[in-house]
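Quality-control log, excerpt.
Job 1 of 2 completed; input and output follow.
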Amino acid sequence: MCVALNCRAQVTVSKRTETVSIVSTLGFAEGSWRFKIIDESVAWLDQPPEGVRSLLDAACKKTRLTSCCPAALTIDTLAFYSPRDKKKLGLGSSSATTVALVAALQKQSFDIENIWANSKMVHKAFQNGRGSGIDIATSCFGGLITYTSCDTAPPTKTTWPTGLYYQFFYSGIEADTIAAIDRAAGVSEKSWNMLIEHARDAAIAWGSGNVEEILDAMEQYTVSLRKLDLLYGLNIFGAGHQDLVDLAKTTSLIYKPCGSGGGDIGVALSKTKKDIQDFSQYARMKGFMPLDLEIDNNGVIPTIGEKV
């Protein structure tokens, strides 16, 4: 299960009269870099950061970047970084950026399933084949989704249950997702099966809309995830996440780290707003920052002009 939040990457693509293309970024990198497309490959005239280089290289191979050039691209991911210290929050900025870029490059045919398929290919190339693709699907379709990585059909959208309250928290520590995925490569198939079983149970509970069942299933999944974490030294519950898990056990709340864990964000779920408010005060004392974010049921959105 994954949910989209109202934090957006924005991409603008426009034609240039010059013979050289340019990409400008805000957020994960700051600056502008010139390039040309030669033999359907990016030929850089400047030296962009590796993230910018890899994203554009992947987009050139898998999308219509060639047909748009010479172009001026602007990629804005400022919303994914803490205004306090400019660290990444861990909300899936690379996936949101990939989806927005792919959608902008093929705006003349805004087919969401085609955007999803191309975004998966670009992101896989961008991350050297790593990742499940769940964050790409969430960025494309929005809302609360049920996702299976082996599915070729679009994910199933689910309504957020009435009476289930949530709060996302930022740990203040950046997690290295790629390093976390590499660590997880050593997990045995038997151990994965245990976690998959609890993930399926949780997905069934979310589909039921029953808050009690959801909280019970999420607690079981979190316990299973913690066992996996300890067994293989994955550090999912590091950076203070385990402290909040322990506190949640003394209340009616469920708390778990999100994404790769080891920093970035976590989420608290409860039947009451009061418990969420009380928990937020404790989380602040532990150095966690409650994020002013809400569920966004819209996926990728084309806007007036060239921005996506």
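Job 2 of 2 completed; input and output follow.
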Amino acid sequence: MLRAIPGVGDAILLKLVQSFGTPESVFAATPAALEEIGCRPPLIEAIRRGPEAKAVRQVDQELSQLEHRQMMVLTYPDKQYPTLLRTIPDPPPLLYFQGTLLESDRHAVAIVGTRKVSAAGRVLAEELARDLAVMGFTIVSGLARGVDAAAHRGALAGKGRTLAVMGCGLDRTYPADHRQLRQAIERQGAVLSELPLGAAPHSYHFPRRNRIISGLALGVVVTEATTESGSLITARLAGEQGREVFAVPGFVTAESSRGPNSLIRDGARLVESARDVLDELRPQLDAVFRDRLDARAEADDQGHVQLGTEETLVYDALDAVPQSVDEVIRRTGLAASQATPVLLSLELKNCIRQLPGNEYVRLSRRTR
């Protein structure tokens, strides 16, 4: 009901709850106690008077809608409120979500980037998210087109958990064509927003939304992004929140690589695979999680993909930059009749991926 008090915005609401512990304690506070934390007389009087009947009815209607839509709302004091998010300077006092939030989601990595992602960038984001999800990390992103969607899909493909933070109310899906993706996320994680039902996806909501994406994670990975991308806002916020900042390098002349390249120049950790992220975050992980990682790594070592001589030659000739069949032939010295079946074999072993235009990229699969 505190939010229904005139003059109580998110910043004041958070300050009140942090100072007094619960909304009930705020309403019971003396004028002197409220004045001591900076409340002005008109606000003190409004708090002492309580919410108007109309505002109470609106709150009750929203709660009824949330229940009908099987959505939940957490307040900052709730025990289920995400642990990492609670530690940022300006956590949302109210957090709406649909799906499930687990204590294990504190082991989270955010992956963000441009909406206009290249085919190779999409593959890389999916692979990175999938590999981290297989390790046990929850993948956080923003449900936008491009890198965000690829990150969510990679986590889902890895049978892991993923959280999507939206810049609108939960009664909307933005973009609308991600409705099926959203439903899949809700089954393997949650969709979240600090905004009430009915809030539209206005452009000014998204920079604030980005602090929640970074706040839910131990670190933020920026893949493809321009220097004007909102992903760089997320990276900056991550640094201010004490989170790790990672970036995937790219061609210096590519506009979509200027963002991550600038982050690397400013000190972000260069990322080529999920292992780079893990190595940096490992000291922050609890002992149980590290033990699971070690057990999984031992199993992976026993399950290396076996490659023949020609397969190894072609695999080594490829990298994260798309290569045409002609380029593969030039690099390996193989005839076209030899290279084509080898490429197919590597694709079936999930070591490489074919892209539109008959180009190929290498996936970071362990081979021997």
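Post-run check on job 2. The two ends are 62 Å apart (CA to CA).
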